[in-house]
Write a structure and sequence with these properties.
- Monomer.
- One of its GO terms (molecular function) is flavin adenine dinucleotide binding.
- The protein is an alpha/beta fold and 602 residues long.
- Helices cover 24% and strands 20% of the residues.
- It folds into two domains: 223 residues, 3-Layer(bba) Sandwich (FAD/NAD(P)-binding domain), CATH 3.50.50; 336 residues, Glucose Oxidase, domain 3 (2-Layer Sandwich), CATH 3.30.560.10.
- Strands 2, 3, 4, 14, 15, 18, 19 and 30 form an eight-stranded mixed β-sheet that branches. Strands 10, 22, 23, 24, 25, 28 and 29 form a seven-stranded antiparallel β-sheet that branches. A three-stranded mixed β-sheet has the order 8-9-11.
- A hairpin with a 7-residue loop joins strand 18 and strand 19.
- The longest helix is centred in the C-terminal third of the chain and has 19 residues.
- The relative contact order is 0.19.
- The site of flavin-adenine dinucleotide has 41 residues, from helix 1, strand 15, helix 6 and helix 13.
């Protein structure tokens, strides 16, 4: 998202550990474990670490990606994906509603998965999101009140490294204080913070201040919380996997190795049982078979988990036959129901003397300011690199009398869920536009939180080494596009408030037409179609559902119609929460680990 051409890539290798870190299946000293976790990503590491708390249980985690803990300075987060060795390099199919553009579709290819490469924003979503989740899956454990202890269990609030008092920027009572993932508000304040706060007063009905948007009460504008502490990214690799490997001998990790398919091992209660799987180093290597005595946990993410099921013959039979796979189990919704949040950015030019991060990030600027900031981060874990680009974000709803709600109905899980999100960045930020070479800017991020478009993940080949066809199908619903138009007009009201009158000079070239006071919907829509990308929140491709003939997993995370396999990752959410999902994924993975431990009495 930022353009940090000078950013040195910072690697930290996992040091000596008790548990083993293998890089080739031939190094394994055994091929049967109690639990085999597929994907050392966000959710997989939570499950593996919790299951291995019991020393009598053996756990193997298999990860396709590499072993580094990457780009720990929060501001460098975006550099972990673009042309990086830590990404899957996926792209979408051409998006019809986006002038047929093909979009990049980043996914972490590294220990920690996408929690090692994402933008660090920590939002749980609304109370209503989880209360609806509980209804859809028919299990009260997924309600906000029941999940809150699991959200807290994953977290440890820490204070920012600039030494300021962060009281008044979050609510300590709604957070965990002794969990593995460090959580913090910005490590470096910015010059626009007071203007943002002034706007919450001046336009308090549209942009009310919310002390903590992670309290279940999501709506309003608050300080961004990020999964970082002591100036560094905290991922599921640093928070869960590394401590488990350091302390235990009953957990092993096999990296740079891909799971290609599950293998049928027998029948249990009349259902086919899949307790073995194939792993390979490369497309041409002979598979090694690995077996789980108790269960296989698929945590390969919203693209990887449905892909592995389909490669194993579990999915919609005609689609499998088409690519030469023999169907074994009919589960029509595998890879269906893909939900993601579209995002675009728009910028305003601000005063030339404004204190923004542009001197570090614009195209072709002098590298000295970046190198100085990096040196400060390296030596003291302070300064500009200890924060993501934005300090504030807000979650908002269409007004109750909005014609959109009348025309299309309200897709939000409840009245406390957000239709759209706005976030402000103290410099030029974009996921799609070319960066300018000079100037000072403020950027506005617009996100649709309750998308009604539904996409798909389908195989284009029977090889695990061919990327699946990914179609988020953005703006295939008119509600989605029109809600983004509303978000643009809302962002414009924000910047036209008096707090910005002596600061903002004009709309940036790309957005001049859209931000004209008399801009038509068509003008705004043209901008949206040109510059929308994914925020990279794909979910729901192996959705949980209470009815046996709907969805892919039951409310114990078990894959329907087969035995021996659960899925624990972003794919099982029945719908995308109305906020960034990673905090919710950590919480749901904690709940899943607890359910699995209870089931096996371990
Ligand atoms: C660039 C980017 C920015 C984002 N920003 C944010 C943000 O700021 N806030 C937020 O809340 N969310 C953000 N997200 C989304 C969030 O990080 C993800 O939704 C979340 O981390 C997904 O967790 P997961 O466990 O489902 O999958 P992942 O964490 O992606 O883990 C899946 C793991 O499985 C491995 N795997 C896949 N297939 C195989 C296979 N066949 N064999 C072996 N291993 C396999 C992968 O390599 C990966 O390590 C972002 C995502 C990206 C990519
Ligand atoms: C993605 O591309 C980078 C190089 O740009 C490469 O290092 C990396 O291995 C690729 N990822 C995969 C999964 O092939
Ligand atoms: C931070 O400020 C709050 C409210 O003013 C105060 O109660 C608290 O003691 C302060 N904390 C520290 C560590 O100074
Ligand atoms: C780190 O902090 C020390 C003490 O405040 C300071 O003297 C030093 O200049 C800082 N280092 C960098 C590289 O900023
Ligand atoms: C952010 O960090 C930089 C570098 O240390 C510092 O110069 C600046 O004053 C900090 N910003 C604020 C608002 O404190």
């Amino acid at each position: 998202m930022l353009n940090l051409a000078h950013a040195p890539v910072l690697f930290a290798f996992f040091g000596t550990t008790l548990g083993a870190l293998y890089t080739d299946p031939s190094q394994l000293t055994k091929t049967t474990y109690d639990f085999v976790v597929v994907g050392a990503g966000t959710a997989g590491n939570v499950v593996a670490a919790r299951l291995s708390e019991n020393p009598s249980v053996s756990v193997l985690v298999i990860e396709a990606g590499v072993s580094y803990v990457v780009l720990q300075a929060p501001l460098l987060g975006p550099q972990a994906s673009v042309n990086s060795p830590f990404d899957w390099n996926y792209t979408t199919v051409p998006q019809k509603a986006l002038n047929n553009q093909v979009l990049p579709y980043y996914r972490g290819f590294v220990l920690g998965g996408s929690s090692s490469t994402n933008f660090l924003t920590w939002t749980r979503g609304a109370r209503d999101d989880y209360d609806k989740f509980a209804k859809v899956v028919g299990d009260n454990s997924f309600s906000w009140n029941k999940l809150l202890p699991f959200f807290k269990k994953s977290e440890q609030w820490v204070h920012p490294t600039d030494g300021r008092n962060d009281s008044g920027q979050y609510d300590p009572s709604v957070h965990g204080h002794s969990g593995p993932v460090y959580l913090s508000v910005t490590g470096n304040l910015s010059a626009i913070d007071s203007r943002v706060m002034a706007t919450t007063q001046e336009l308090s009905s549209e942009f009310p201040f919310n002390l903590d948007t992670n309290s279940g009460n999501l709506l309003g504008l608050g300080w961004i919380q990020s999964h970082m502490g002591f100036g560094k990214r905290s991922s599921s690799a640093t928070a869960y996997l590394q401590p488990a490997l350091d302390a235990r001998t009953n957990i092993d990790v096999l990296i740079e190795t891909r799971v290609t398919k599950l293998l049928k091992t027998g029948t249990s209660s009349g259902l086919p049982e899949f307790k073995s799987l194939n792993v390979v180093k490369s497309a041409s290597s002979t598979p090694t078979v690995i077996t789980a005595r108790k269960e296989i946990i698929l945590s390969a993410g919203s693209i990887g988990s449905p892909q592995i099921l389909m490669l194993s013959g579990i999915g919609n039979p005609p689609e499998l036959t088409k690519v030469g796979i023999t169907p074994q189990v009919t589960l029509r919704e595998v890879g269906k129901n893909l939900q993601d949040h579209p995002l675009f950015t728009a910028q305003w030019k601000v005063r030339d003397d404004a204190d923004t991060f542009d001197p570090l990030t614009l195209a072709g600027v002098d590298p000295a300011p970046f190198l100085a900031a990096f040196a400060e981060w390296n030596a003291n874990k302070t300064g500009l690199l200890t924060a993501v680009g934005g300090k504030h974000m807000g979650f908002f709803r269409l007004p109750n009398n909005s014609p959109l709600l009348r025309r299309y109905g309200d897709p939000a899980p409840g009245p406390g869920s957000a239709h759209y999100e706005l976030a402000w960045q103290n410099g030029f930020v974009s996921v799609s536009q070319p960066f300018p070479t000079s100037g000072r800017y403020i950027s506005n991020i617009h996100v649709l939180n309750t998308p009604t478009s539904r996409g798909t993940v389908t195989l284009q080949s029977s090889s695990a080494f061919t990327q699946p066809l990914i179609d988020p199908n953005f703006y295939s619903s008119e509600f989605d596009l029109q809600t983004m138009v509303y978000a643009v007009r809302s962002a414009q009201r924000f910047i036209r408030s008096s707090a910005w009158s002596d600061y903002v000079v004009s709309a940036y070239t790309d957005s001049q037409d859209m931000f004209a006071l008399d801009a038509s919907d068509e003008t705004i829509i043209a901008y949206i179609r040109r510059w929308t990308h994914s925020i990279k929140h794909p979910m729901c491709t192996a959705a949980m559902h209470k009815d046996s003939d709907k969805g892919v997993v039951d409310n114990n995370f078990k894959v329907k119609k087969i035995k021996g396999v659960r899925i624990v990752d972003a794919a099982v959410f029945p719908f995308v929460p109305s906020a960034h999902p990673v905090a919710g994924i950590f919480g749901i993975a904690e709940l899943a680990a607890s359910k699995i431990k209870n089931f096996h009495g371990i």
